[in-house]
Amino acid sequence: MAELDHPQSDLEPAAARLAEAVRYRTVSYEERERIEDDQFAAFGEFLERMYPRVHAELELRVVGHSRLYRWAGREDGAPAALLLAHQDVVPVDDEPSWTYPPFDGVIADGHVWGRGTIDDKSRVLATLEAVEAALADGWRPRRTVYLAFGHDEEIGGEHGAAKVAELLAAEGVMADFVLDEGGVIGVGLIDGVPVPTATIMVGEKGFVTVRLSTSDVGGHASMPPRRTAVGRLARAVAALQDKPMPLRVTEPVREMVARVAPYLPGVRGTLLAKVAKWDKALARVLAMRPQTASLVRTTTAPTVIRGGVKPNVLPQTAEAFVNFRILHGDTVDDVLAHCRRVVRDKQVSVELAPGERAEPSPVSSTDSPHFRLLGELTTAVVPEAAVTTGLVPGATDARHYHRVARERFGFAPILMDSTELDRIHGTDERLSLDNYARLIRFTGQLLRRL
User: Fold this and answer.
1) Fewer beta carbons under 10 A from the terminal one: N or C of the chain?
2) Does 429 participate in catalysis according to the annotation?
């Protein structure tokens, strides 16, 4: 079977297309009135110019600015896969700090620089590059494939991915699996593991924000009560942070450790393999480091606190918002009950904050042939990689597609160390040309295997 690779001679124009994509300011803002609809419209027109075969041969439906493509297979039956990515990017608030302006799409030093090069325009374009090349080769998939590119993932996906998923559900679509962002191939991210670790995410944590509020009569600061509204609220926030939700090891984390342990040399590998069999010990080990603590508990993050109007005036009201990323086995209701137990102050109101919330996603099995396929294709592009599992700590568009796919995975075969990971949503976001070539090649090979 011939593999669908992206020839090295084609990488330069492909990189130029990615650089041009960065120049469209498809920024998602929480204040939706700030979103530049004309930039999204222009970006859609750009995609249609750059990938003419895709837009001539695949069925396209536009939902808002989200784009849903249907690539009809040679055979009838249920679709094989739903490949996701998103067009929108997060805002930039430190533009002078960037080596190159974040929306200039500069190619330099072996990288494409700019907002969206990793998250997530590279996956939009890599998918289209692979499909365009397949069409040029006269190839069609055996089974139908859907491509869905959301336009508001960074602010929840309610007007993009959620609407696309509703449309697919209404049509009775049930794909074998969804592939979205999430895991990468980490370099040096696990102490002592000498090989890159490819983390294929098999589920997503849920999320919810809890609002704490209190009120008081106010007055002059020269005659304060025993505890002001601000002090009462601060004590409640501190209590939540000091008493997090319980540690717990889930199957994806247990398997992650078991898969990585053989790569640790000597005694460390032997000990980790033994610890992996004892959940309490494993949870305590992982909880010792911030990088791994989120794997074994529902996390607590106070993010907003405010109250008072003047230094010498007692505050009449105060409120705080605490964000929780919910581990599998916990629920939104569990989080709220936990907060009320810990705060235990009748003068502090504890309620779910308005806005988005989500329960933890279903967890996909590593016994799945689709997980094995993703692992095989990963080692085809990075032969030395150790394939393991994980949970997405944040939220992606994949959570909207549970009803239209049997399994969900989050992964992109790009090599990243901790410095590169810090650039996602940060300063100097960039993607190496080597990584972009891997991403295109991986996607092309995946299409050939469906």
Assistant:
1) N
2) no
Tell me which fold the domain 204-352 belongs to. Answer: Alpha-Beta Plaits (3.30.70)
Q: Are 304 and 179 in contact (CB under 8 A)?
A: no
Percentages (nearest 5) of helix, strand, coil residues in the chain: 40, 25, 35
Q: Out of 88, 132, 152, 180, pick the active-site residue.
A: 88
Model pTM score: 0.91
The CATH number assigned to the domain with range 8-203+361-449 reads 3.40.630.10
What is d(CA 322, CA 303) in angstroms, rounded to the nearest whole number? Answer: 6
DSSP string, 74-111: SS-SS--EEEEEE--B---S-GGGSSS-TTS-EEETTE
Catalytic one among 119, 132, 152, 153?
A: 153
Pairwise CA distance, residues 32 & 101, whole Å: 24
Q: In a structure prediction context, what are the per-residue pLDDT tens digits for the chain, which is 450 residues long?
A: 333 444 555 799 999 999 999 999 999 999 999 999 999 999 999 999 999 999 999 999 999 999 999 999 999 889 999 999 999 999 999 999 999 999 999 999 999 999 999 999 999 999 999 999 999 999 999 999 999 999 999 999 999 999 999 999 999 999 999 999 999 999 988 777 889 999 999 999 999 999 999 998 888 888 788 889 999 999 999 999 999 999 999 999 889 888 988 887 776 666 666 666 678 888 888 888 777 888 999 999 999 999 989 999 989 999 999 999 999 999 999 999 999 999 999 999 999 999 889 999 999 999 999 999 999 999 999 999 999 999 998 889 999 999 999 999 999 999 999 899 899 999 999 999 999 999 999 999 999 999
Q: 121-136 and 37-50 helices cross at what angle (nearest 10)?
A: 30
Domain ranges of the chain: 8-203+361-449, 204-352
Q: Which two tokens stand for residue 218?
A: 């106010």
- Residue 153 falls in the annotated catalytic set: yes
